[in-house]
């Protein structure tokens, strides 16, 4: 800490709390989280489809397991995207009421 009591970067763990006067144009992390959830849904859904087709033609146990695994990941990404969208909408609605 320097003489004015401000953190000079040596103690990064104990940074002062934000004052609450952050800019109103600050970017929300909801857009990033929603994009990552959509990416995970597309990639895991595509992988589940590919392994599902392979499991249907070959009946391979590994392909069936991979289909289930990627299906669960795709479902998790879908649920995450829905939760993020609901939270983002509630935050935007409460900020527009002010």
Structure in words:
The longest helix is centred in the C-terminal third of the chain and has 36 residues. Helix 1 runs antiparallel to helix 2. With 98 residues, the chain is an all-alpha fold. It is elongated, with a radius of gyration of 22 Å.
Record the SSE blueprint.
Layout: H1 30-58, H2 61-96
Helix pairs in contact: 1-2
Quick gist of this model?
This protein has two helices and no strands. The protein is mainly alpha-helical and 98 residues long. The chain is elongated and about 60 Å long.
Give keywords.
mainly alpha
Number of helices: 2
Low-confidence stretches: none
Query: What is the strand tally?
Result: 0
Report the sheet with the most strands, covering strand number, pairing sense and barrel closure: none
Strand content: under 5%
Order of SSEs? HH
Helix fraction by DSSP (H/I, runs of at least 4): 55-70%
Mean pLDDT over the full residue set: 83
């Amino acid at each position: 800490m320097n003489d004015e009591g401000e953190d000079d970067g040596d103690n990064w763990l104990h940074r002062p709390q934000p004052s609450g006067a952050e800019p109103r144009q600050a970017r929300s992390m909801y857009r990033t989280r929603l994009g990552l959830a959509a990416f995970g849904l597309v990639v895991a859904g595509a992988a589940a489809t590919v392994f599902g087709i392979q499991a249907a033609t070959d009946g391979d146990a590994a392909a069936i397991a991979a289909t289930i695994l990627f299906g669960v990941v795709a479902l998790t990404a879908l649920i995450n995207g829905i939760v993020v969208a609901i939270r983002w909408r509630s935050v935007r609605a409460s900020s527009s009421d002010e």
